[in-house]
Amino acid sequence: MDLTQENTRRRLDTEDGALYYYEAGAGEPLILLHGSGIGVSGWKNFRGNLARFAEHYHCYILEFPGFGVSDPVAGTHPVVSAGASVLKFMDALGIESAALLGNSMGGVVGANLAVREPHRVRALIGIGGIGPNIFAADPSEGTRLPQEFADDPAKDKLVRWLNCMVYDRALVTEELIEDRWAAATDPASHASLAAMYGSKAFAAQQKMQAQGKFPPYWSMLHKIGCPTLLTWGLDDRQSPPDMLLLPMRTIPNAEVHIFPKCGHWVMVEAKEAFERVALEFLQRVVS
């Protein structure tokens, strides 16, 4: 059976609203966590990879609250509600522990769970995103572009950001542009984008960090005990490769794979190679 959005889509009702997810395959659980950005969703991130991973694992693509699919959680930062939604989801489905595969923000969510709830995370695969900018500009080009869009949405700004996400601009088709534009203009999706990337929200976050009100998540990466695979595009302009230096040194059981001629969307632009590397890792560390 072909895996489509319609035949894999599921709904979980919670006290904070509906969580949507996509389910396929059998075996050990693998939960796929999407990134942030303009018009993003779990299905858009991982629809091309689901069939391959579902050949080996019971896969769940979770849609985080407020990204245009699952219901938003009022008054909660999107990264916080995303992390809480993973545990809520696992508890509701009776998943005691699982391997987590996260793109960008999804990798950060997975890393935070591995730090705070280590018994729930059997293995972690990150696709960019994990770690601090060390040599590259902070915020990066790929962060400034969605900030411009969040402050004043326009299709040309969306196109600039999409081009920033990939090494091969041929991947930025009219179909992709229209698909992301339709999602980005959803009110809930834009509200989540603004809460993460809008100028006011970004300034408030920077101020709180400067005041030391909460430690940066990457200062806790040494507490991750599970096997970890960090994957990266060498030409990533959202998460420049220098971000990789701290996590690959501080996560005790980290492995690293860098894909050449590849941007931020490793699972799209280096699809077959990424799937091969990720499956080899999972089959080694997840019994």
From TrEMBL:
Top-level taxon of origin: Bacteria
GO CC, one annotated term: membrane
Keyword annotations from UniProtKB, A to Z: Hydrolase
SUPFAM superfamilies in alphabetical order: alpha/beta-Hydrolases
GO molecular function, one term: hydrolase activity
Gene3D superfamilies: alpha/beta hydrolase
AB hydrolase-1 domain boundaries: 29-269
PANTHER family: AB HYDROLASE SUPERFAMILY PROTEIN YCLE (PTHR43798:SF31), MONOACYLGLYCEROL LIPASE (PTHR43798)
Protein name: Alpha/beta fold hydrolase
Source species of the chain: Nocardia stercoris
